[in-house]
Write a structure and sequence with these properties.
The protein is α+β, with helices and mostly antiparallel strands and 99 residues long. It has one domain. Helices cover 29% and strands 16% of the residues. The protein is built from four helices and four strands; from the N terminus they run ββββαααα.
Length: 99
């Protein structure tokens, strides 16, 4: 795993929107978020509120990438698909799915 701090590039779009793009901290593959409100992003960066409040238009995967630099594929590698995606619950596979 890369030991450098996660730094994503902020791309400014039209109408006060932006998106983040950068390598996944785990896989090294490029990942980009959906468009988000730049004022909300700056509010989060300045710690005015938590990311869920500041960027409600983003899904869990995009918010996690902004926080940790780890993409959904990176999380799947880390947890070997044993956790349901962002639910925090073990997947049926980890209990031995019924056949």
């Amino acid at each position: 795993m890369n030991k450098e701090p996660h730094v994503h590039q902020l791309i400014q779009l039209d109408n006060g929107m932006g998106m983040a793009i950068g390598p996944c901290y785990k896989t090294g593959q490029e990942y980009s978020t959906k468009a988000f409100n730049l004022i909300g992003y700056m509010s989060w960066i300045l710690k005015e509120d938590n990311i869920q409040v500041c960027l409600p238009e983003l899904n869990d995967e995009d918010r996690e990438f902004l926080i940790s630099g780890i993409s959904p594929n990176g999380w799947n590698l880390i947890f070997d698909n044993e956790w349901c995606h962002y639910s925090g619950m073990p997947s049926p596979k980890s209990f031995g799915e019924a056949k």
